[in-house]
Fold each of these.
Amino acid sequence: MTSDSQSSLTSFSSTSSSSFASDSASTSSSSPSSPLPSSVTISSIGTALPDSPNDEPFPVNLLYISRAWYHAALPYVYRRPRLYPKNYFSFVNTLSSSDILGSYVHILDLRFIIQSGKNSYTSRLLRRCSKHLEEFYAPQTSFGYAPLVSVRQCGRLRVLDLSLVSETVDLRELFLAIRNLQKLTVLHFPRSSVFCVDFEDDLWPPNLSQLGLAGGISDDFLSQTRFPHTIKTLSMAHCPFVKTDSVRSLCHRLGPSLTSLRVLFPLPALSYNSLDATLKFCPSLRKLVVSTDYITHRLLSAENVSNPHPLEMLDLDCSGMLGQSRKIQADDIALAVLEGRLPKLRIVRASIKLGWTKDDEEVSELIEVLSEREGGGLWIA
């Protein structure tokens, strides 16, 4: 919802009841001047619109048709508000002054609210929207203790993304917040969380399928906690305390169920070849995103890929630090495909920091091999 839309909606909500009544009479199904056929409903319009953050929001002008249309359209207008610094305070004030508007919000995305809010605002919004809130994306700032406590009230929450949070978060409070979120399927930890020492086994929601680990996760926590085998997608970054053995142990335990794995710099305690056995530990993996800081060419060797592996996408990131560009080469990937170890690999993405160019013979060969697959290719960015 843009700032213009928000201001229009606020002024519209104060329109007199008499004008609504006259509008409703003129837009009844029997009236020949009805602006839309009676078969067209708000519900059919709302369900026909895509629910992607990149798509156009619900057409706010529909609120002006009549009183009936106004009340019927409100749930769609507020379902996923488009929030930015310019309209954020108006949105907070509007929800604070209403007992019902917050119940219409299903997706609350505050990732674009940078240095524009307060902890009290975030906490208030979570409480106001708790009845039907399904997805929450936290802002970089303005997410401290009070908002974390308010998360506990969001019993319908399916997505809790704290990956952008730069403020200090006590992981013990986070575990308390998610303990009763039985519908939670996606969880991303904050990158500036406090070092976690004490933990219990019964931490996780029963249906968790996507987990992003970051921040003060301890090495013992990673190696000893019983992670649920419902997890299909795992990501790790900004974990300064985790070491090679604990990461390998986690991949070994969750590997059979993982279909997507993302391990990115910085993980300063990992060794240069920590993830070479990833494909051996994760026989069902379809997508692998990894920094070359933690792998070598042995990632794709016969000793680690003894049987045909179902990997479809390989994304090679790179920190750009000295010596990282030569650890794995394009011909290592091409040979793994040609020798049948990666029969389904179609897409390879490589960081420009690796120094690959299409003029290199090895890179050209990889491009040719991947181009033979439908939708396949090499992308360098």
Amino acid sequence: MSSMKFQALLVSALCAFLVSGCVSYRLGVAFDWWGGGSVEQLLTIDSTLLQAGGTQAEQLIAGLRRRTAELGGTSERSGDQLRLTIPFTSGDDLEQKLNRFLGQPLQTKSPSVALPAPTTSALKQTPTAPATGPLRLVARDYWLWSDYQISADLDLRSPFGAVRTVNLVPGLLQIEFVLSTPLPALRSNSQQQQGQTLIWQIQPGEVNHLEASFVVPNLALIGLLVLVAALVLFTLLRRRQLTWQRK
């Protein structure tokens, strides 16, 4: 069910543009050293396609910006690029927000476009309800560090079967998923790894399975232990100095 929702989001957001030219979508998740971070989405649409989409294209973009704002994020429009940024404070917060964003697709109705989105009151009524979606994240705490296991199954077979009347030539639609972590990942099935950044090239018309594991150190606890050790060492040295002075 979650894969179908993800498909519907991609179809409703991109089908209006798939005539000629190029559309690229980059979904990035960046973890910081404190276990939080941000989700950054970059949608680039060829200017010719953007003009061809007309009012429908602008409505879809407005819907994406509104949904981002409802999740506490910001959006920035510059020419043919739309950048959406959603902050998260923990792994659970990331899973909830990203699955809520991807799990409630923008639905296209003929002849106009409807952009349903969860209202603020609806979110308040179900604060503990899990947001189902393609992303799964499991975090295990080991006192000095946390081990993260992240995975996603993106089934992009069906939606592109619905737009076969469009000339979907190679390179027309480019989709990337990017994961950045404080330390290099321990394991992943990504196609590329650049330092602490993993990059997956998502293939339209196929089932894409993503997985990775990485570690985030508990800097607050590590810093506290270092401070306590420094105080103990200072106390011992001070006592030894006083003892020598008395002699």
Amino acid sequence: MNKRALVTGGSAGLGAALVAELLAEGLEVISIDRDQPAGETPGLHHLQADLSNISALRELLAALVDGDPFEVVVLNAGISAVGAFEEIDPKQLDKVLAVNLLAPMELTRLLVTKQMVAKGGSLIFVGSLSNRLGYPGAAVYAATKQGLESFAASLRKTGAYRVLLVLPGPLDTEHARRYAPLGSKGRKRQSPSVLARRVVSRRHRPGTVYGTVAQALVGLLGIAAPSLMTSLMRRGLFTKLRAAPSITDERT
């Protein structure tokens, strides 16, 4: 039996780094992404799809039913919309909601009902440190990631699968640079390869993975002292994001 993994958003950023780590572990990987990766990689198969189209997901997964169940499923794909909440086109907000929350929920439901997750397999959900802090200037993004965290926590309670939640802070990716405040240099952003290595090594143990120890502490402070963390982050991030021109992912 071939050990298989499924990764959404596997063509770039953290998704591509996770794909590389899973391939290095000897798994055959299927990546679902709207963008075609450059070149061909042994063991990697790509399905091109727009994950904002929730009604098309059943047909998308039909092509995977004949293979072995997945040992690892990584729900990683995500988009954002930055700017003052009231100024963002509602259609773009709907797409953020669909890609970040509705698609992973529906994909999980379809995979489970079609018995496409191996017994004792791992479900890995990529959330965000914004779950702990709130995110003025990217409110819908934060809301979808909080919803994803709650969904993952509920699945973990069933004990049927190993459920791992990943809460990255700022990563050194094109996506992060696109939505960062104007003038942000990104010197403190984490390498996606480093985080991917940690996630894949933890795939057999349920729980939560933060990007770094410092980010874990920030996340805990966001819960224990939300007013303090909001005050500290308002000038450096929140005010800049809210004042910035709206940025949306119009390709989806």
Amino acid sequence: MALVSVAVLPTAWAQGSYPTKPIRMVVPFPPGGGTDILSRLVANKLTEANHWTVVPDNRAGAGGTIGITETVKAGPTGYDIVMGQKDNLVVAPWLYGNLPWDPTKDLIAVAHVAYTPVVIATSAGSRFKTLADVVAAAKAAPDAITYGSPGNGTTIHLAGDLFEKAAGIKIRHIPYKGSNPALMDALAGNIDLLVSSVPSAIAQIKAGKLRPLAVTSAARSSSLPDVPTVAESGYKDFDVSTWYGVFVPAGTPVAVVTTLNTEINKLLANPEVKAAIQAQGAEPLAMKVDQFSNLLKTDYAKWKGIVQASGAKIE
């Protein structure tokens, strides 16, 4: 069902009548990762600010696509929403040939919440002090250095793949089922490098247990201002980041979409909420519904070529 289907507003959804019962926020990744952290923050703040009941519900698996599929199948109830991001909405459709939904047709991009660079890090006891150390070691021993990501074909995995190509090196990718398992193995020294969203890694970075080597965005992260970008480390124009936002199934009444967009954007303007998001390593950014929809469509088209060039496949 196309996005324009929300233009018809059933009388049962008169403005101001929503919500009348708890809202389920599907979290398509395991507890502890960047998506989970931001989802719970938004759910809790929506509950506090509006006296709603917004309940996070982790539905992990298949690169985040299981949670999206479940939300689409729930239909336009107004009470099933999902925290999606670039991984499962922009990248995954080009990796899975049989997804029962199209992100640009079967979902409405309701409210952009935040964006974040990817961080390349290593354990505090690692021999690598800089990104240049990693490149030198990889050139001396191709395919000997390992890096973990939240999963095959995720934006984070592809950030690692793009860095390999930019640096002209070969390092071995170890995919995990979510951010937290990769983080645990990096802390234990079972993998040489962790490639992660900043929200998933920042607590361990601040605790001194992970050493950040670079962030992948064009500009430095406000959460990690002392960490250089990949571009500053010698790889001009390197820029990879990911975003998070709230989606609902196509056909959800416009009154519901408008209410959710308005209330989430109010949260993002709140200094306390902004600080809480930044403390997790992300940058809050409010958008109107049409702005977020355009971002989804643009990225969806752009990343088809990136995924194909990477050769990433779902095993």
